[in-house]
Request: fold
Amino acid sequence: METRVQKAVGLHQSGCNCAQAVLCAYGDLFGLDEKQAYKIAEGFGSGMGGMGETCGAVAAAFMLIGLKNSNGAIGDKATRPDTYEQVRELAGAFKEEAGSVICRELKGTTGLPVYPCSKCIETAARLFENHLKSIG
Reply:
């Protein structure tokens, strides 16, 4: 049986960008069908629309944290501090493994070792999955 982490990597190999791969692999857990997830995440690939900023796979994991944690009540900020904390924790764990959350740094364009997109997707998906298990 294919794991969701493997599904995310496979989606990338099939043509999804990094953000789409992660969001599509987990979106159904939060009521998103694959087409919705694909469309939502499209602008987040290659470091936010190809700008080399925050890794799209990481950004998708952040979106998933929001889907899991937010109460969805417009204007209600009650869940925001906890969501932000969870995002910072996942970002810290990703940075500890990969060395950065910045796409251009992960791609090695700043002199740091290369951390390929497939590895970013695998790492972000695995960290999100571990996060889900830890919060129940």
Summary: The first helix runs from residue 4 to 13.
